[in-house]
Prior knowledge:
Largest sheet: none
Helix content: 55-70%
Low-confidence stretches: none
Distance between the termini: 71 Å
Strand content: under 5%
Shape: globular
Order of helices and strands: HHHHHHHHHHHHH
Amino acid sequence: MSCPHQPNYREMEDSIHTDFKDDMAYGDYLCLEKILSAQQPQSEQHDEMLFVIIHQASELWLKLAGYELSAAMGYVRDGDFGHAFKVISRVKQIVRQLTQSWDILSTLTPVDYLKFRDDLGHSSGFQSYGYRKIEFLLGNKNASLLEVHKNNESVHSELKSILEQPSLYDEVIRVLHNKGLEIDSEVLTRDVTLPYESNESVVQAWLSIYQNPDQYFEYYELAEKLVDIEDTIQQWRFKHMSTVMRIIGNKMGTGGSSGVSFLKKALDISFFPELYEVRTKL
Length: 282
């Protein structure tokens, strides 16, 4: 029965498809039955569903961020800066979305979390291979971190492969070298499985770019896109740390870490240190 004169009624249009017996529907395309049945709280506590969904949704965003960063590396290698800028800007927005999710999780009170915390066992966000992939792609390499993934052969293999490949910043520095900017050979031939360390020749290369933005506009813009990424990830790290402090104080993490004090150390790690050092020299 139609209600054409009701202000809060929207008429069903005849052209809208309703028979999906032999056609793909929205839920089929997105595999929603599988996704929406993946929430399996380990307790009877109401707030555990919030905890599960926040982390599952975060893993999906991390998967997309890793996908885009891998594409960005290819674009940088090919000198396709337009597409590189596009996907790097997308990663920035993804990380902002991840950061905002901590505000939702912070509605979980300490008392309510303690009702199901023991049911998590030793599972911990530290074991997120989606996040570890992002860190490795951006250059925060640490082979010892692979240990927590040794029981999952496919994940361990993928992360090991990324560990042994140049990071996004390694690719950017090589592009600067190919452009004619002087980069020390020790940077170009470094062991990419090790954490990146600042180098004065890279600082000077960026200084030339920042002092001559018209001449090096694409590289100047690329530098700012990278700073955008680091800035948003630092905000994500800080919000993570402050949310954990709000919920569990200084308790140890479920995965065995020292908790908040361990998370604070991440704030001192820079993916692109010379891009901050150059600002002092300008």
